[in-house]
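User: Sequence in, structure out. Go.
Assistant: Echoing your sequence, followed by the structure tokens.
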Amino acid sequence: MLPIEGRQRVQIEKIYPAIDCGRFPIKRIIGEEVQVEATVFTDSHDLITSEIVYRRESETEWHHAPMYSLINDRWQGVFTVENIGNYYYSVRAWVDHFKTWRRDLQKRVEAGQNVAVDLLIGAELVEKGANRASGEDHDKLHTWAAVLKETSEDQKILVEKALSEELFFLISKYPDRSLATTYEQELKIIVDREKARFSTWYEMFPRSCGTPLRKHGTFKDGWEFLPYIAGMGFDVLYLPPIHPIGHQFRKGKNNQLVAEPDDVGVCWGIGSHEGGHKSVHPLLGTLEDFREFVAKAKEHNLEIALDIAFQCSPDHPYVKDHPQWFKHRPDGTIQYAENPPKKYQDIYPIDFETPDWQNLWQELKSVMVFWIEQGVHIFRVDNPHTKAFPFWEWAIASIKHDYPDIIFLSESFTRPNVMYRLAKLGFTQSYTYFTWRNNKWDLTEYMTELTRSEVKEFFHPNFWPNTPDILHEYLQHGGRPAFMIRLALAATLTANYGIYGPAFEVCENRAVRPGSEEYLDSEKYQLREWDLDSPYSIQDWITRANRARREHPALQSDYSLRFHYINNDRTICYTKQTPDNSDVMLMVVNLDPHWTQSGWLDLPLETLGIDPYRPYQLHDLFTDAQYTWSGGHNYVELNPYDAPAHLFWIKQQ
């Protein structure tokens, strides 16, 4: 069987980026460039022209951007995505007969050959170009074709005209794509709003915002905390589940199996006779109170992120109304959550293998849509790796089709392949292994993976030094300096980071037992009162870091991150910069929370856009100290009890 068009001679291979051979989309932020490479070649010695073709999902016509030859048949081009939503792109290429003719004409002239016939061939090619053109260009190309046919003209003059840049530029506007080869696959891009790339999260339990007269906090009580949170420079306020909490098998303080009458239970044990995933816990207030809380937060430039935890307490209405959505054991009871030997009798996992999966999917999607309609456009999703992958791919794509500005944060501390798969399926941002990366080698290797491999095309990391579930031993034993160090790293290594507060800023480091990452008196199980005026608070340190992030574009993305040599393994040194070098940031962090560390570092000044023969000034945005350095080889010393990190803004004098 013959091909549909056997005259298409150009071959296109190995397009990058293309995640898993194009199975999954890449990700970009509105206004960002997409750099595309491909291997493009043809038979014989003809020259080719290659271009990127791209369009928004809602468009039918393709835009095109030129590609330029690199080496060994590799081509590269760039285009910019200007709207949120989905884009598609591919590569198209064709044998360029005019370009080939022009090259060969030059060779023949240099060899001293008579090129009269060659000029006539060129005239035919120009005439065909004129037929593809319109308006003034149509007339100009017809004139050029007539000039090349003029046999009475001096051949040397005709050659000069034939090889002129003016003619080449004009005819290049109207290429002959009739036999062009287009790569057989349309590759997809998900384009998100800026907050997908750059956001600063603060997690707070509103039920701990109570007053002496009303111990259990409400949304209205939470209003009082908004200026405090916004004042530190956060722009996303993440709330754990705000729904009614089950009573059966409710856990007590410090995860006790038997709850006392006044124990408030675990927020993630969702559902009771008071409602389920579309309801608000009555002790927090009403749905109208929540909407007002969202509006009040917006006044402080805070966007509310809501927890989505698809699991149920034994009291959840789903258990009664849709028992088929849960696994039943031979004795007729429903299977509760387990991670042997641990048992979570207060939580029923949802069975994604239920024969009624289609109705289940629609209902779970409707939960997210319900909260979108209440004003929530950011979701932190609890343990998405314990739910079916096909569900997430369908649900996220479906929701973003109707609400393209929605952001999904994946809370998935699991195997790398699983974590990355969730990002490929559509999750906008992802929790990471940062919490457990505490030495120089681990941090360098991990950040190199996230910013220098294919991972950067689909994975937006969000660094959290603590969560309600995780109090790492580094924080347990490192004291106040450890919190300052981890904040400095989280806030500057990545453009998305968050903290669980107020536990973090007041340096809460008491574990429930030695060797455990669980907090003593964890807020997951009980109400807490926090001393925001504690002398141990690092509120000012956090505020300075967030102000630097807000004022310096170099800190608002991850891709420029570069590590630099410093001759001490207990210190780490790295830079970030804008593409035009107008904003250059240097971070030096003492990773030892107990002892002063020092070292000599080496900076590639020319790479940073700094004249190596002139002094330059460094302004430490943590301490306001200013230094003048000369050359790339300089000394630093950091006392963890004073300021364990430098956050330098580099300015050429």
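User: And one key feature?
Assistant: Residues 245 and 270 are 5 Å apart (CA to CA).
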